[in-house]
Amino acid sequence: MLTGPFPYYSIEPIREGPLLVQWMMAFEQIPKKDWYSILGADPSANMSDLKQKYQKLILLYHPDKQSADVPAGTVEECIQKFIEIDQAWKILGNEETKKEYDLQRQEGDLRNTGPVDAQVYLEEMCWNEGDHTFSLSCRCGGKYSVSKDEAEEVTLISCDTCSLIIELLHYG
């Protein structure tokens, strides 16, 4: 177990105390937080860049790396930042959770751009064997498209030309 000058801090799972409350509150914020900005990374960053930014920040804010004469309030801020950085890496450092988070971000962005123009069943869209996507023509002349993998997880799709959005539905 890693411990430092802060007797209540450890990397072990937190089962009680004030840090448990902080962890629980932070996990409730998962869809609302911008994990990329916490790491100072761009959403298009590759895994290597994300890891490099994580390692740099985790060393900077690690409780064991803080000097003993730092005021208590600053220590608490560093611990909170350390926890956020660790959470960001747990989400973005795993391909599966990163993909899920990216889809949630994309969907949230779409919800904020405008109302849903139509509801369309996946089965009503055309399958394109060449690029392995489902597509549907938009009234502007553009198209809505979604990959087979994304079709199971995505509910909103934006047109590639205009600002219209459709909601993707599934039978049964």
UniProtKB/TrEMBL annotation:
DPH-type MB domain ranges (all copies): 116-171
GO molecular function, one term: ferrous iron binding
InterPro entries: DnaJ_domain (IPR001623), DPH_MB_dom (IPR007872), DPH_MB_sf (IPR036671), J_dom_sf (IPR036869)
Main location class: cytoplasm
Compartment annotation: Cytoplasm, Cytoskeleton
SMART domains named in the record: DnaJ
One Pfam family cited in the UniProt record for this chain: DnaJ
Pathway(s) served: Protein modification; peptidyl-diphthamide biosynthesis
Keyword annotations of the record: Cytoplasm, Cytoskeleton, Electron transport, Iron, Metal-binding, Transport, Zinc
Residues annotated as signal peptide: none
Gene Ontology CC terms: cytoskeleton
Domain of life: Eukaryota
All residue ranges annotated as the J domain in the record: 34-105
Residue stretches spanning the membrane: none
Keyword Metal-binding: yes
Assembly: Monomer and homooligomer. Iron binding promotes oligomerization.
Similarity annotation: Belongs to the DPH4 family.
Protein name: DnaJ homolog subfamily C member 24
